[in-house]
Amino acid sequence: MRITAPRWLAVGLAAVFSAYHLVLATVSRSSYDDLAPVVVGMVLYAGVTVAALWPSRSRVIPLWSACLALAVAVVLPVLVSLQLDHGDDNGYATWYVAAVGTLMVIVSARRRQGIAWTGVGFLAVHAVAWGGLAALPETGVIGSISWVAFSSAMSSTLARAGRETREFVLAEQEAADWQAAQEAHVSERQVRLATTGRTARPMLQAIVDQGGELTDEQRDECLHLEAGIRDEIRGRRLLDDEVRREVLAARRRGTVVQLLDEGGIDDLPEADARRVHRQLAAAVRETSADRIIVRTAPPGGEAAVTVVGLGSPDPGATALGAGASAGAEEDDDGDEVRLWLQIPRVDETAGPVTAGPHGEAVEEVPGGGAG
Q: Domain segments of the chain: what residues?
C-alpha cells in the first residue's frame, strides 16, 4: 500500500510551472544583450523537463535523466546571466533561478535528492558569484532552495509512511491468521469434546448407575470406546460414520485396528474423500485379518490410503483381543499379509491390487475389500 497523490496531478502541476518559466523568459527577451544563448537555454530546459516528467513504471527518475537535469541546472544560469547586467533590476529576466528550482524539485520528488541538492547548491554559488549575497533573496534562490527542501522532506515522509503502512498491513494479516488459528483450535476442541461426550456418555452413565461394577462385556466395550476416541484424534480425515461403524464392529470381533492420519489426504476433494471412506469401510468389513493398519499415503503419490491386514498363519491361533493397544508389542515377523489395499486418490476403472490369504494377487473392485 502506498500513500501518494495522483501521478497525473503532480505531472500536470510540474508541467504548468515549467511552462510558466518559459513564458517569463519570452516576455523578458528585451532585457538580454544577446537572445540566442537564452533561446538555447530555454530549449535545453524544455527538453530536460519533458525527460524528467516522462511517465515510467518506476517512481525513481532514471540516473541518466537526473544527470541531464543537473547539467542543465549548471549550464542554464551561466547562459542566461551572461546576457544580463547584474547592476540593474532585471525583474523576470532571472527566470532561470525559479526554472532550475522547479527542475530540481522534480528530480527530488522522483527520489534523487542528492542530485537535486547539488543543482540548487550550484545555483546558490553562482548567484553569489554573479551578484553577491544580496542576489540570493533578490533573484529567488532562497525560494528555490526552500522548495527543494520541502520536496525532500515530503518525499521522505511519504516513503516512511508507506513503509509503516506496509508493516501495519503485515501485522494485521499476522493477527488475523493467529485469530483464525485460535478459532480453528477452539472449534476443533469443541467438536472433539462433543464427539467424545456423545460416544462415551452412555457408558459413563452406566458406570455411575452401577457404581463401577461392570460386566466383562461392558469392560470390553469401554476399551472399544477408548479406541474410538483415540481414532478421532489420530484418524481424523480417515473417519466418517460408516468407517466408525465398521471399525467398531471389527474391534468387537476381536480385531486390532490402527488408524493413522498423517495429513496425506487433507487436500482431497470431498467426492474422492467419500469414495475413499466407502472403500475403507468395505475393506475393514470384509477382511478376516487379526490386525488392520490404515495409514494415509504421502501427498503427491497415486495412492491416498494404504490398508494392511495381518493374520496368524496358524488357523488355531487365538485372535488378538480388542483390549490390545494400538502399539501392541507382539512380534509380527510370523504374521502373513491377509490384506494389502491401496486406495487411489482419483477414481479408476480398475481397482487396486490386494493380496489374498496366501499372498496371491487379487484385483479389487472399487468400493470392495479383500477377505
A: 7-167, 238-363
What span, in angstroms and rounded, lies between the C-alpha atoms of 369 and 282? 5
Dump pLDDT digits (tens) for 145-173: 888 898 888 888 888 888 888 899 999 99
In angstroms, the CA 299 to CA 21 distance is 69
Residue 278 CB partners (closer than 8 Å, separation 6+)? 242, 367
Residues 6 or more apart in contact with residue 343 via CB below 8 angstroms: 275, 276, 279, 280, 303, 304, 305, 306, 307, 352
Lookup: cell for 209: 448407575
pTM of the model: 0.49
Q: Could you tell me the fold of the domain covering 238-363?
A: Heat Shock Protein 90 (3.30.565)
Beta strands 353-355 and 336-344 are unpaired
Q: Helix 95-109 and helix 7-27: axis angle, to 10°?
A: 160
Q: Would you call 168 exposed, middle or buried from its count of C-beta atoms within 10 A (0-12, 13-18, 19+)?
A: exposed
Asked whether the beta carbons of 339 and 289 are under 8 A apart, the reply is yes
Give pLDDT tens digits for 158-213: 888 888 888 999 999 999 999 998 888 888 788 777 877 777 778 788 888 888 88
